[in-house]
Amino acid sequence: MSWSIGIDLGGTNIAIGLVDGSCKIVDREIAKTRAPRSAESLVETMALSVRELLERNLLDLSDLDAMGIGLPGLVDQKTGLMIEAPNLHLDHIDFISLMGRHFPQTRIRVGNDGDCAVWGEYLAGEASSFESALLLTLGTGLGGGFVCEGRIFRGATGLGIEPGHIAIEAEGGPLCTCGRRGCLEMYVSIRGLNRLIQEGLQGDLPSSLRYSIKKDNPSGNIKAFFDSVRSHDLPALQILDRYTGFMAAGIRTLTLLYRPHIILFGGGISQAGSILLESLRKALDSSKSGDYILSLPPVAISRLGNDAGIIGAAMLHREGTSVR
Length: 324
Ligand SMILES: [Zn+2]
Hints:
This protein is an alpha/beta fold. 35% of the residues lie in helices and 22% in strands. It has two domains: 3-122 and 306-318, Nucleotidyltransferase, domain 5, CATH 3.30.420.40; 129-301, Nucleotidyltransferase, domain 5, CATH 3.30.420.
């Protein structure tokens, strides 16, 4: 049996999985990220968890094929450096070298977390029967990645794609975390949807949603919002139409650039499931013109959830091979 370790370094938790040769997580450890702290200290925590996992499963370091770390920021594939990760308050970190000090005999890879998630779905999840897949992670921000014919697409420079920061408004629009305005992230992430909810409730129409929205609970508001949609609350339905309208605009651009065979959605908002997809499909249908230029791929919810990132990280070493 071949084994590898996948690490998903998030802003809140570090999830570490022991993954078998068929892309199944057989055991896992969760540690707190507790950012901000030094990269050395983060790596120390990861290394402890890896040893714990191996020991618990009666495995030795020599049983490991490889180890991969999914990082929440910009990763330069050519140098292996994590250029920046605002949530961790870290920049220009060489995680491969730092981890290599603890595990000098193990192959170590790093990747952007969106890239790892789409790689996991491609190998063992919702995209496993497609030649290519684009994933959008609808979380606090908007991440994602694109896989095509057995490789993660990272652009010509190796910096990876950033679908959250494509502009869908040329002028104005809300200020994004990247410092620019009008980015897709500001409309379709949890932060973006919360803003659309606030705006949508400013009218006079009665809505039960007004009583369940709280200022300091953006994720909780998303759940309350979809509950209102399910009970056919009119303002909530209008907000959903507006939300999926922005998403459709982003998807049209991304489809024209990448031509994926399928588009998947992960992250907190994707848990809304079919009610989100139905509205999105309606918005996409309204933009069809009957020509071949914009032939839209199917859209679906990712299957592996948070596990996709762990599996994808563990399997980074398989990139470019025909194994799937
Ligand atoms: Zn931006």
